[in-house]
Amino acid sequence: MNKGMLIVVSGPSGVGKGTVLSKVFESDNNLAYSVSCTTRKPREGETDGVHYRFLTEKEFLENIAQNRMLEYTVYCDNYYGTDAQYVEKLRESGTDVVLEIETNGALNIISKCPDAVTVFIAPPSLEHLYLRLSGRATESRDVIEKRFIKAKEELARIDNYEYLVINDSVEKAAEDILAVLRAERIKKYNKNNFRGVLL
Amino acid sequence: MNKGMLIVVSGPSGVGKGTVLSKVFESDNNLAYSVSCTTRKPREGETDGVHYRFLTEKEFLENIAQNRMLEYTVYCDNYYGTDAQYVEKLRESGTDVVLEIETNGALNIISKCPDAVTVFIAPPSLEHLYLRLSGRATESRDVIEKRFIKAKEELARIDNYEYLVINDSVEKAAEDILAVLRAERIKKYNKNNFRGVLL
């Protein structure tokens, strides 16, 4: 059995990562979503252990101190991070694991796991992104501006990612990611599987 | 406009490269098949300029002498090669170009064009390949044995290729290659196209 791949997916707030990834998970059966830990407050409809593992700042800092985070970062005054052991267990079982993380965390992963597959989801335009962020009625004007500035910073980092997917259509973006997953499996797994055939 | 990619496809004689690639070309509109030059005799049903450009040995050697071949090799006592200018023109027009060549030629291309996408098509087993080669009634027992030995040599070189596609089903193998093409375009083209958005 092959060890599962690590797939890092980033993209600015408001780009529609969640919707695109939902479509991807509907069509791909060997994929697990790595539930991040965070200290931010749950939004309406978010469930602990499903969307995030919601931790207190004290709990999060303990995890860091015990070296249990694969990566972590501070984003808009909250901690976000990935439990290393949890991801490793999934990969050892042969499952490919998707980490949806922002660019600082992603850069940490890329340096620690050079074989990670890295995907950046970008909006078709900055205007498009601003409209999407403004449309989120739950956020104040101040938070929207903050997220938009952060988004532009993140977009400046696309060169650190191997694959750039443009979300001009959810279906197309999801199919793009499914093609990337299929191609990476052909690259990473088939040679291992084939060696037995030649013996 | 992006310059077209160079896609190198290899695989042993009898693996079914032609059938798989036909399926790929049916579904992909930005793809051109690079017609190789050869000094071997046309098989029944093969048309000059479509399956190969059939050259005399004198013509082929002149092309080599004039440095007009992107790669060439001798295989089963015949010359095979790729006209460099012909491929370059296609790529400059934005078309992705598929070169179906054997492993010696491919290794030359890989060293000259490190950004080439390399795909090796393998049979599900050696037995499977031998049966396929034996089933070709047009070939003598001697030629079959020669091709089988050559096939095993080629299979020993899969590590020089990025992608290994197993032809256990023509449909699946074609879809694998289509996914590779889509992923490589996402990798190579989208970033270029996106820079304009950020300006």
Write the topology of this structure.
Two copies of one chain form a homodimer.
Chain A: E1 6-10, H1 17-27, E2 31-33, E3 36-38, E4 52-54, H2 57-65, E5 69-75, E6 78-83, H3 84-92, E7 96-100, H4 103-112, E8 117-122, H5 126-134, H6 141-155, E9 163-166, H7 170-188, H8 190-198
Parallel strand pairs in A: 1-7, 1-8, 2-7, 3-4, 8-9
Antiparallel strand pairs in A: 3-6, 5-6
Helix pairs in contact in A: 1-7, 5-6
Task: Briefly summarize what is shown.
The structure is a homodimer of 199-residue chains. Chain A is α/β, with parallel strands linked by helices. Chain A has eight helices and nine strands.
Describe what you observe in this structure:
Two copies of one chain form a homodimer. The longest helix of chain A is centred in the C-terminal third of the chain and has 19 residues, at 170-188. Chain A is globular and about 65 Å long. In chain A, a hairpin with a 2-residue loop joins strand 5 and strand 6 (78-83). Chain A is of the alpha/beta class. Chain A has a single domain (6-198), classed as P-loop containing nucleotide triphosphate hydrolases (Rossmann fold), CATH 3.40.50. Chain A is 46% helix and 21% strand. In chain A, helix 1 (17-27) packs across helix 7 and helix 5 runs antiparallel to helix 6 (141-155). The first copy, chain A, has helices at 17-27, 57-65, 84-92, 103-112, 126-134, 141-155, 170-188, 190-198, and strands spanning 6-10, 31-33, 36-38, 52-54, 69-75, 78-83, 96-100, 117-122, 163-166. The two termini of chain A are 17 Å apart. In chain A, the strands form two sheets. Chain A has a five-stranded parallel sheet with strand order 2-7-1-8-9, with helices on both faces. A four-stranded mixed sheet of chain A has the order 4-3-6-5. The model of chain A has no long low-confidence stretch (mean pLDDT 92). Chain A has eight helices and nine strands. The A-B interface holds A 122, 124-126, 155-156, 158-159, 162-166, 175-176, 178-180, 182-184, 186-187, 190-191, 193-194, 197-198 and B 122, 124-126, 155-156, 158-159, 162-166, 175-176, 178-180, 182-184, 186-187, 190-191, 193-194, 197-198.
